[in-house]
Every structure is written in structure tokens, then in C-alpha cells.
Write a structure and sequence with these properties.
Blueprint: E1 3-4, H1 22-29, E2 41-46, E3 49-54, E4 65-71, H2 89-92, E5 107-111, H3 121-134, E6 137-147, H4 149-160, E7 167-171, H5 179-182, E8 188-192, H6 201-211, E9 228-233, H7 240-246, H8 249-254, E10 265-270, E11 275-277, E12 281-289, E13 295-302, E14 305-310, E15 315-320, E16 325-334, E17 339-348, E18 353-354, E19 362-363, E20 368-371, E21 374-375, E22 381-384, E23 394-396, E24 401-404, E25 410-419, E26 425-435, E27 444-449, E28 452-453, E29 457-458, E30 486-488, E31 503-507, E32 511-519, E33 536-537, E34 542-544, E35 547-556, E36 559-563, E37 578-583
Parallel strand pairs: 4-5, 4-6, 6-7, 8-9, 11-17, 19-26
Antiparallel strand pairs: 1-9, 2-3, 3-5, 10-12, 12-15, 13-14, 13-16, 16-17, 18-21, 20-24, 22-25, 23-24, 25-26, 27-28, 27-31, 29-30, 30-37, 31-36, 32-35, 32-37, 33-35, 34-35
């Protein structure tokens, strides 16, 4: 699983998707997606450039609206714009991944190309200019992002129109253009550690930072000197989902305003990020530079609290940190009121301390989730000690999350092993209590798919239809009348299985089993395997982001249920089916 090597101040890290193969993703990106879209998206054409435009619902009269431009990656087959481009993560992040909620109304422009973007720049700028002239577009808050070929297009367009964009977010592309022309535009760039398409990016980032007063060469974890560069460890080219879902890039972009005043730059010459100290008194030396004015002051922030306000020319002194992990931030303000900040982590090495907490009491058959908390040198790794076992149906994740649907009752005494970032470890005892199931629940046990043991969950918003490590991109967004049913979500890579006994599980009562099988009904058509002929197609559908599922139901008696493989490759669908289970007398409303 990928891990980023930098967290921007005040940004919420959301998780990172397991890396996909480069060739597989390129192939997927070159195909259409059977996406229904939303009424907020409309097709347009400017000269030879086709594009989709997202117009927010809640535009207030007279209110200036930010504009976001997204350029997709390689490769389209023509200039024809379809809704496929609008489901790429860096464009969906501007409207909260299909939730159509925004911290403030934002126009989104998502154009199409075959190869290359330069030939569209004049037309795209005309689209933006028209939004500014006639539709309340904000000329001081125009943002651009792109992935792969679109990442290169992002570098190129801010070179063609320097001073036009308020911020840029290029992904998975080496720098293109003039360092001098782009050095003052706020940029947050993203790349995978082994990405050959961005293998020189850190060198150009270092050169651009030098123009902004930082002579240290490339330094990871740097937030205060433009441009920012986040590298995702153990990942290759396809980092757009990791970038869009791991950080609030929209919040970062919207904080940037293009008012003719350059942002200051600031960094810690000492201490360095993740430095470990034996004492709590830590000397610091901050460098702050403003290219078109002066530094008015530098605020030193410890763990979110301003503790010193410094006036130059030297910004140095002693700070008393707390035992354990600390966040140290330097906020530089220029003489015209703009600010920038550098954030690092410093620590003293302390033993981890488990925080005693009230673990919620669970019920058999109900969704159970809790997360253990430890203080000390984060991050922490959790595991079950030898000699103790979890209640059946529950799973402990490495981050301390305990989740699942328990199927046995009683009081369970567990021993957790906890290891911190400095390799110190402790062992603690916790007790989990599981009560009797409710009358309407059914217990699902001994779940196996393709030889793998599975842990059932519930059909609720945010759960994936197919199991993946990390944070999967495709998750349930609307389960409709099937919400809350027990769900078996088999591994995503099992979709081609054709065996007659792919999934087996035991139920403690007569049940209704529902099969949610992906459908395509907008641009494409799909079929279902012949074994679903013995099931009845139910009303309604289940939506998982940009995937849609038909639902088929069949009654089964108490005991073992065996289901065949999805045979998805022959059915023109992308995902494996998933299973929903309810007690027989529990009728699903239509």
C-alpha cells in the first residue's frame, strides 16, 4: 500500500489507494465509462475544443465563483468530450466525488483531447474568460490540475499564461517550461516514487525553490517553499486517486488568491523534519523570504498554538516542545498581508501509552467498529498477541481499527501488541462484549470466496462492493432500499472466476440472498451469467460512485449457500458481483 512522504498543514489525510499496474490503468483510461453523470454537467464546444462544464446549483447573485480546469491523461481517440473525463479523481474532487457538495460554489471545466493539450489552450482560456465576463467567474481564483499528459498540460498552461492562475496541481509529470515564469505560481505537484514520467521532477522543484530563496536542494516534507512536491512511496505512475483522496487539495487551492502580490516563502533551516531530541529545549532557525516586499513577522506555532511572534531580520530562538510527538509550524506574513507556512514534526522518544477507552458493546449480526488510541511516537501498529483470538466476524486492522460483524456472543478478553514509530512496543489487555442478535438479523458465518476467508460488512454508504486493500475508489454511494443488509464483498480481482462454488457461506436462518451485478445501460450494454436465471430480478438499483448494479433475489433455507463465479469478463462488466443477505420474512421495500 502506498504511503505519502508529506502532510500539508491543516490538510486532512484521507487514505491512499493500493497501487494499480501502469499498463492496466492506461488501458482503462483509454476506454469509455458507462457513467450517467449529474444534471450539473453540460456539454459545450469552443471552436474545436469540446468540454463538459459543471455549474453549481447554489450561485448567489453578485457572488464571484472560483473556476477549476482539469485536463485528463493519455489518451483519447478524438476531441469528443464525454462524461468519462468527469469521473477522473482530480475533476471529481472539486464537487466532493459525486456528492455535489462544495465548500463554496465552483465552476469545473473538463475538456477532451486525443494527444496533447497545447492546441486547446487558447480555446480553454476563452471559456474561462467567458465565465468571468458573463457568469460571475472570479478572475482572482482560477485553478488548474491534470494527470499524466494532463499534468504536463498543467505545467504548460501556467507557462503560456503566467499570472493568470491562482494555483496549479500537476500530477505524474515532469516539469515543462520556464522556471522563472512559474516560480511564483503556487504549485502542489504529485508523483509516484518509481514514476519514470516524473523522475526528474524533484530536480526542477529544487531549482524553482532556489529561485524562491531556498538553496538547500530538494528537501522532502517541505511545505513553505514553492513548489510543494508530494512523493507517494512504493507507487508508480497512477497517483491521481491517491492524491485526490489523501489530501484536501480543494481547500489548499481555494486558499490561494491571485491578487498581484506574491506569496512569501518560509522554511526551517533547523530543526529538520522528524528529528528526535533527548531534551525538550529545541533551538530553531527559520528563513523567510518575500520576492516582492518584506516579511512583516514570523509566527512560531507549536501543536496548533501560537507561542512566539518574531520580527526580523533573524528568526531564531529556543522552543520548549512536549514529550513525544510535536508539530512545529513557522507562519511567515508579508507586508501586504499574505502568508505561507512550513510544517515539520519533531519529537522526544517516549514509550507508547495506551489510552484506556470505553469500547462499545456490540451485538451479533450488527456492524461493529471502534478504533483504539495510543499516545507517543506515531504512527502505531496494532496486532493481536498470540494466545488470544477475536470474536468470529471481527478483524483488527494495523491502524487499530476493529471492524466487522460479530457472530458469536460473550465477553472476550484480548491482548493487543502495539509498536510505535521508534520501534518501542507495549502489550495491553482489552475486553470486547458482544450481546445477542436482534430478531431481524441473520448470522452469516464461514464465508469463503475463491479460497479466501472474507469478513462480511453492511451495505452502507462508503463500503466497497469489492474488497481492496487501502481506500478503494469505488464505494457504495446509494444502496437504496437494500441499505443496512449484511453484505459479502469479494475481492475485486476475482471477477473472471467461473467455478460453480466460488462463494460459500453459512446462514443460521432461512434467508433471501440478493446478487448485485454490475449493469451498463447508457453507452454500453452488459449481460448476466446464466445461473442468475434462477433468481428474480428485483426493483431498484445500487449505485457505487460511477458503477451501477442490478439486483437479483432468491430464497435459501438455513444452512450452507454456494454461489458460482461472476464470469464478468464475458459479460462486459468491470467489477465482481457482491452479495446481500436478509432474513426471509424481512421484506425489502420496493
Amino acid at each position: 500500500m502506498g504511503k505519502s512522504n508529506f502532510i500539508y498543514p491543516h490538510m486532512k489525510q484521507k487514505g491512499i489507494l493500493i497501487i494499480l499496474s501502469f499498463l492496466g490503468v492506461l488501458n482503462a483510461q483509454s476506454q469509455e465509462i458507462d457513467y450517467k453523470g449529474f444534471p450539473q454537467w453540460s456539454w459545450h464546444k469552443q471552436d474545436t475544443t469540446e468540454y463538459y462544464l459543471y455549474t453549481p446549483d447554489n450561485i448567489k447573485p453578485g457572488k464571484k465563483i472560483p473556476i477549476a480546469l482539469f485536463m485528463h491523461g493519455c489518451c483519447g481517440t478524438s476531441y469528443t468530450a464525454t462524461l468519462r473525463n468527469c469521473v477522473d479523481p482530480p475533476v471529481r474532487m472539486w464537487h466532493n466525488f459525486g456528492e455535489n457538495t462544495q465548500s463554496e460554489p465552483i465552476y469545473i471545466i473538463s475538456p477532451a483531447t486525443s494527444r496533447g493539450w497545447d492546441q486547446h489552450f487558447t480555446n480553454l482560456k476563452a471559456v474561462i474568460d467567458e465565465l468571468i465576463s458573463n457568469h460571475q467567474g472570479d478572475p482572482q481564483r482560477i485553478y488548474v490540475t491534470g494527470f499524466s499528459m494532463g499534468g504536463g498540460g498543467t505545467w504548460s498552461i501556467i507557462n503560456k499564461y503566467p499570472g493568470f492562475f491562482a494555483a496549479a496541481i500537476p500530477m505524474a509529470s515532469n516539469f515543462k517550461g520556464s522556471l522563472e515564469l512559474t516560480s511564483q505560481i503556487p504549485v502542489w505537484s504529485h508523483r509516484g516514487e518509481s514514476d519514470t514520467f516524473a523522475n526528474k521532477l524533484h530536480e526542477d522543484v529544487a531549482k524553482m525553490r532556489a529561485l524562491n530563496g531556498d538553496p538547500r536542494g530538494y528537501v522532502p516534507y517541505e511545505t513553505g517553499v514553492n513548489p510543494i512536491l508530494t512523493t507517494y512511496l512504493n507507487q508508480g505512475h497512477v497517483v491521481q486517486w491517491a492524491a485526490a483522496s489523501s489530501y484536501d487539495l480543494v481547500e489548499w487551492a481555494l486558499s490561494k488568491v491571485n491578487d498581484g502580490n506574491n506569496y512569501p516563502n518560509v522554511y526551517f533551516e533547523s530543526p529538520v523534519n522528524d528529528e528526535v531530541f533527548s531534551a525538550t529545549q529545541v533551538p530553531f532557525n527559520i528563513k523567510a523570504i518575500d520576492s516582492d516586499g518584506t516579511i512583516a513577522r514570523v509566527e512560531l506555532v507549536l501543536n496548533g498554538k501560537i507561542i512566539q511572534s518574531l520580527s526580523g531580520p533573524d528568526f531564531k530562538g529556543i522552543v520548549n516542545i512536549n514529550q513525544g510527538d510535536n508539530t512545529l509550524e513557522a507562519v511567515a506574513w508579508d507586508n501586504k498581508g499574505k502568508k505561507n507556512s512550513s510544517v515539520i514534526k519533531v519529537k522526544t522518544n517516549i514509550k507508547p501509552v495506551f489510552v484506556k477507552q470505553s469500547v462499545p458493546k456490540g451485538k451479533a449480526g450488527d456492524m461493529f467498529i471502534t478504533r483504539f488510541n495510543t499516545q507517543g511516537n506515531a504512527p502505531f501498529s496494532y496486532s493481536i498477541a498470540n494466545g488470544t483470538t477475536l470474536p468470529e466476524g471481527l478483524k483488527l486492522f494495523k491502524d487499530g481499527t476493529l471492524k466487522g460483524i460479530p457472530v458469536e456472543t460473550g465477553s472476550f478478553k484480548l491482548r493487543l501488541n502495539i509498536k510505535d514509530a521508534e520501534r518501542d512496543s507495549i502489550s495491553v489487555k482489552v475486553t470486547i462484549k458482544i450481546g445477542q442478535k436482534d430478531a431481524g438479523e441473520v448470522l452469516v458465518t464461514s464465508v469463503v470466496a475463491g479460497g479466501r476467508r472474507l469478513f462480511p460488512t453492511k451495505a452502507i454508504k462508503g463500503e466497497p462492493p469489492n474488497y481492496e486493500e487501502g481506500l478503494p475508489e469505488v464505494t457504495i454511494s446509494n444502496a437504496g432500499s437494500y441499505a443496512g443488509l449484511t453484505m459479502i464483498n469479494p475481492p475485486a480481482n476475482d471477477k473472471s472466476d467461473t467455478t460453480n462454488n466460488y462463494i460459500s457461506f453459512n446462514v443460521d436462518d432461512d434467508v433471501k440472498v440478493y446478487i448485485a451485478y454490475e449493469k451498463k445501460d447508457l453507452l454500453f450494454t452488459s449481460t448476466v451469467p446464466s445461473w442468475l436465471g434462477s433468481f428474480k430480478e428485483e426493483q431498484g438499483e445500487i449505485v457505487a460512485q460511477y458503477k451501477y448494479f442490478r439486483v437479483f433475489g432468491k430464497s435459501f433455507p438455513k444452512g450452507i449457500v454456494v454461489l458460482p463465479g461472476a464470469d464478468a469478463n464475458k459479460r462486459n462488466v468491470d467489477l465482481d458481483y457482491f452479495v446481500l443477505i436478509s432474513k426471509e420474512q424481512t421484506q425489502v421495500s420496493k
